[in-house]
Amino acid sequence: MGRSDGSGRRVSAPDADDSDTGVLHIDMDAFFAAVEVLHDPSLAGKPVVIGAPDGRSVVSSASYEARRYGVRSAMPMARALQLCPRATVVPPSFTRYREASAQVMDIFRQITPLVEPLSIDEAFLDVRGAKRLWGSPGEIARMIRRRVTAETGLVCSVGVAATKHVAKMASTMSKPDGLLIVPAQETADFLAPLPVRTIWGVGPKAAEALEARAVRTIEDVRRTPHHVLARVLGESGARRVAELAVGDDPREVQTERVEKSISHEETFADDVRDPEALRAELLRLADRVAVRLRRAGMEAAGAAIKVRFADFTTITRSQALHEPTDLGQRLGEAARELFAAVDRHDPVRLIGVRAERLRPAGSSALALWDEDADWRRAEGALDDAVARFGAGALTRATFLGRGAAHVPPRPPEISD
User: Fold this and answer.
1) Which position among 10, 40, 320, 369 has the lowest Cβ density within 10 Å, counted as fewest Cβ atoms?
2) CB–CB of 179/145 below 8 Å?
3) Edge-to-edge strand order for the sheet containing 122-126?
4) Poorest-confidence range of 6-10, 61-65, 154-158?
5) Could you tell me which of 276, 264, 339, 354 has the C-alpha nearest to residue 309?
């Protein structure tokens, strides 16, 4: 399996068999860093780390030159600079990244309307219906790679396979600047020797539990009795992993994706001990989440919090809501309840609020009266102010004078 620094890279020969394929996974290489190099060519060939230039921030992205020193996305910036003291730290420019992403996605949609963006820098394409116009899936992948470089100056890696799962694995193995084709009839052989932790959806803890039971490769998964897998992954998880291990993945490329959750989080400039400051921050973040819910015409049936302590230990807590809501007040109350139940009182580095189990607004049965009518009017005023003046235009009185927890947001922890 290829590593994030490009070692172990695998690519296909120009005449590789692409029979019975049709799904492409396209992943831009070190996207944020590559966009910054285009903006400032003097960075080319240098170890570049994207993130806020202070020791408390995290790495949003890193060039392959920096990755060879062990720098990784989501790593604390202080650790990244220990590993690579010569790195050039560049603050992120999300406007540039969004513009570059739009260019790339437009190229994809000129090839096929069946494009499923996974994030700002990767997407699935179903090209089975585009063969008559553009050629075989392998030929289409090569054309896309050429066009992306010619029209944007950026580089992408592509996996071509019969299913989304295998295409994504193939693109990862081909990075950087590669193309790997997995013919349908070779899927089982391709998967067999790969580590179990490469299966899409098997996280580090599940992988460790499987490896402790001598389930180290995908071939091992196939040989393992269902009840052993279920003990680690649960019944549904065991079935899904067993299917993926033999190459079964019925998921189609979805051109419209419904958000499953909406969240906001804050990394503090200094660790925060004051519980009242943290409670105020939870309500502020809940307001931001609620604004996005209302914009999307959604409401949440569940709420969750994320807390990262000074030692980087991270916990999450969630609960169902009594009634679906799109109000920051209700989300904030739930977030505060969850936080009050946390039995650890160490200094907090990061805190976040997430709305879960989303559904279209108004899909629940209507009550005879609206107990939240006053809050709804107040938060409607918040929406108007945000639309006219931006997210910081209006705030609750409870936040005034509480500067300890209200700090500029850090770059999000994004892996590319």
Assistant:
1) 369
2) yes
3) 115-119, 122-126, 23-28, 156-161, 179-181
4) 6-10
5) 339
Same domain? 158 vs 217: no
Task: Please identify which of the residues 65, 116, 122, 266 carries the catalytic annotation.
Answer: 122
Do 309 and 275 lie in one domain? The reply is yes
For residue 9, what pLDDT is reported?
A: 87
Are both 238 and 352 inside the same structural domain?
no
pLDDT for 25 beyond 60: yes
Q: Does position 352 have pLDDT exceeding 90, yes or no?
A: yes
CATH code of the domain containing 149:
3.30.70.270
* pLDDT, tens only, 185-199: 999 999 999 999 999
Residues 21 and 149 in one domain: yes
| Of 345 and 171, the one with more pLDDT | 171
Tell me the C-alpha to C-alpha distance, in Å, between residue 105 and each of 101, 102, 111, 118, 359. Answer: 6, 5, 10, 11, 27
**HSE of 408 in the Cβ direction (CA atoms, 13 Å)?**
6
- What is the largest distance, in Å, between two alpha-carbon atoms of the chain? 68
Report the chain's mean pLDDT, rounded to a whole number.
Answer: 86
Is 327 within a domain?
yes
Number of domain units in the chain: 3
Look up the domain containing 149 and give its range: 1-183
Has 122 been annotated as catalytic?
yes
Q: Are residues 65 and 125 in the same domain?
A: yes
> Is 238 inside a domain boundary?
yes
CA dist 25 and 157 (Å) reads: 8
Q: Do 175 and 266 belong to one domain?
A: no
The answer on 197 and 179 residing in a single domain is no
- Regarding whether 283 and 394 lie in a shared domain, the answer is yes
